[in-house]
Design goal:
The protein has 406 residues and is of the alpha/beta class. It contains 15 helices and 13 strands. It folds into two domains: 320 residues, TIM Barrel, CATH 3.20.20; 36 residues, no CATH class. Strand 1 and strand 2 form a beta hairpin.
Length: 406
Amino acid sequence: MPAPPSSLIVGSFVLLLMGNGVSQAQPAASIEARADRLVQASLLVDGHVDLPSRLNAFYENPADSTVGGDVDYPRARAGGLDAPFMSIYIPPYLQSNPAAATNRADALIDLVETIATDHPTEFALATSPNEVRQIATTEAVALPLGMENGAGLGGDLDNVEHFYERGVRYITLTHGAHNRLGDSSYDDAAPRWSGLSPFGADVVAEMNRLGIMVDVSHVTDATARDAIEASAAPVIASHSSCRHFTPGWERNVSDALIQSIADTGGVVMITFGSSFLRTEYREQDDPIRAEMNAHIDARGWAEDSREAILYEEKIRDEHPIGTVQDVADHIDHAVDLVGIEHVGLGSDFDGVFALPEGLQDASGYPALVAELLRRGYGDAEIRQILGENVLRVWAEVEATAERLQE
């Protein structure tokens, strides 16, 4: 698409500066109302939400308003969120104990299943795009699953099918350290495999065969390139933003990798975490967190106590870093590179400390949509970004699996 128009706020109006030089004034309130209607009418899929790990550390009823974190049922409904992928996160420290890593994955899946069983009106498990669409016709929020860190497989190829049967529909190949599948962008040690390992290549092939999306968030460029080349199906980055805005930071995806992911038919899902948005934001939260932790320690509160959780959320709310415009800039950049059909959203809610103003929890999606409307995106384009693109990719991964199983 051509470069989106810019906008100026003049009084209570938003002045859209169109590419042809013609300006259109729309009341700011009407754009916000339109954005709210659009998120409620669209199918909104978020590629990565760490609610299971958050509840594993400090359990609250997610069907009701919670004091911790970013996502619960009331906030999801307020923000129009229909299907947050539940992150089945395996901490790197468990990688040295394969059985413990696999057990953690199973335990977190158990937790998500319990949420859906205990609160069937509010939540329902989803294992296919069609199930997501069906659940979206009800009042429930769909809960698809993605495993974050292939270490959860425990080095056993048979576990790919085990976790498919348990509902996992994407696997992020690595997390914070090199593992048996490949190299991690977060690991300061020398590369272990210089890309995807032989076992990692076998895992990718098995994921293709079963219908599990290959996720290249967190991996090194070399690992991503190898995974993209090895995959017979479209590839995703479930929660990564554009390295263009954070030069030298490999955790975000480069322009070349965005293009390579798009060439597979895949999608890059832009994340909201402040550190992903601009280089200058990457360490701004360090002193905030240090002061917060000192306050918690001084009062003798346990890290997982209600008092500590309440205080942490107060500090997070008071210290947003970045803006909704920053997130929209990443969307613009990816769209300009590869087109609207290869861009989605992967907030990383409940997995990051600092978030931008206006996007500090799951009720904030309309603020981002309003910004996209101000920049000239149409309703159909926004629906693609909100969920239709990743659902298309998911369906194509399923179709690839059907062909490979013939």
